[in-house]
TrEMBL record:
It comes from Neorhodopirellula lusitana. This is NrS-1 polymerase-like HBD domain-containing protein. InterPro entries: NrSPol-like_HBD. Residues 275-334 form the NrS-1 polymerase-like HBD domain. It holds the Pfam family NrS1-1_pol-like_HBD.
Length: 346
């Protein structure tokens, strides 16, 4: 790792897409080939049994957009074809009843949906606008969440979003966080979400994602730009930059660090902003609240780009300043303690 901080050549870039390339190739073929797409456009056989066994199903249709908003989803009672309520179980049904009703009324109904309730352990995570439906490429943010959750995941009807369904042993708040290109949304109650069955996770079952949700909320939802760490000066370097990178690469999550350091799939995806905070958060763990050292390593990584130095004309801060501040605020007070007997950087 002595040359770890040399500029990254394109052929050195590690791509997470290799991990899922066979599944994605089959999925893309399915979306392009009418022979592989069921008439209902719902792949019922791959919808997890844990969901199909629940009597929490409805049909749905799309409400036209108003005032520039995106279309909203209207849940429909499969028995009456009237509006269903996300808080009234008497308007829900079994999966089979909802699916049969949809197939019999596909001219007016758009699909089937699952109702999340306070009485069940299920949670939905959605990453919006993270897939280019023409090329099939995912944004870095989409890949990071896909890799972290490890539960049932599927494409949306638009083929631009990834939806995840897991179970949890704690209640997280419903939340939504928008980025310039993507949006992360977490829902666990009073919510209807559409199901396609077009899995991108190789048919994974619904799994416990409590720890992964904590990771997502720590990084993406619990960021306070007014945190006092923003005003703190940088301490002395904890170790030479090369040693920080070598130590980070040898850790249990070293593959993820190296993927981010190399720029991930930067040249093949349409959003990189989602990778900046996770990378800087990892650096904050190893460097401590040392803004200068984190900045230096980012500048020598494959994620560095001109946007890093773009300055907000009103606040006077750069995109890089704010990103590092977010990462330190999210990471503290947990930083790696380097041995006191290490040679100090010169």
């Amino acid at each position: 790792m002595n040359n770890a901080l040399n500029p990254i050549e394109p052929d050195q870039t590690i791509s997470l897409s290799e991990k899922y390339k066979d599944v994605l190739a089959k999925l893309d073929e399915g979306f392009r080939s009418p022979d592989m797409t069921p008439p209902s456009k719902i792949n019922a056989k791959d919808i997890p049994a844990k969901l199909r066994e629940c009597n929490q199903w409805v049909c749905w249709k799309s409400n036209p957009a108003t005032d520039g908003d995106t279309n909203s989803i209207a849940p429909i009672n499969p028995r009456t074809l009237r509006n269903a309520s996300v808080t009234d179980r008497s308007t829900w049904s079994s999966f089979q009843e909802a699916f049969d009703t949809y197939q019999s009324n596909s001219d007016s109904l758009a699909g089937v949906g699952f109702i999340l309730s306070d009485d069940d352990p299920f949670v939905e995570v959605r990453v919006s606008n993270c897939r280019n439906p023409k090329s099939g490429n995912f944004s870095m943010l989409g890949w990071l969440v896909l890799d972290q959750l490890g539960t049932y995941s599927e494409l949306s009807h638009s083929a631009t979003d990834i939806k995840f369904v897991g179970v949890m042993d704690a209640k997280f708040r419903n939340g939504r966080l928008a980025y310039p290109e993507n949006e992360i949304e977490i829902n666990y109650s009073a919510r209807c979400f559409c199901i396609t069955g077009w899995t991108i996770s190789g048919g994974r079952d619904v799994r416990d994602i409590t720890e992964a949700l904590l990771w997502i909320q720590d990084i993406y939802f619990d960021l306070d730009p007014n945190d006092s760490s923003y005003a703190k000066p940088s301490p002395l370097d904890v170790a030479p930059d090369e040693d920080v990178v070598e130590k980070a690469c040898s850790a249990a999550n070293g593959d993820r660090f190296w993927e981010l350091f190399c720029g991930g799939i930067y040249d093949r995806h349409f959003d990189d902003n989602g990778a900046d905070i996770p990378f800087c958060r990892l650096l904050a763990f190893w460097c401590g609240p040392n803004r200068d050292q984190i900045d230096r390593i980012v500048r020598r990584s494959g994620l560095f780009r001109p946007k890093w130095d773009e300055r907000d004309l009103i606040a006077g801060t750069t995109y890089g300043d704010v990103t590092i501040g977010h990462a330190i605020a999210a990471q503290q007070p947990t930083f790696f303690h380097w041995p006191d007997n290490r040679p100090k950087p010169t």
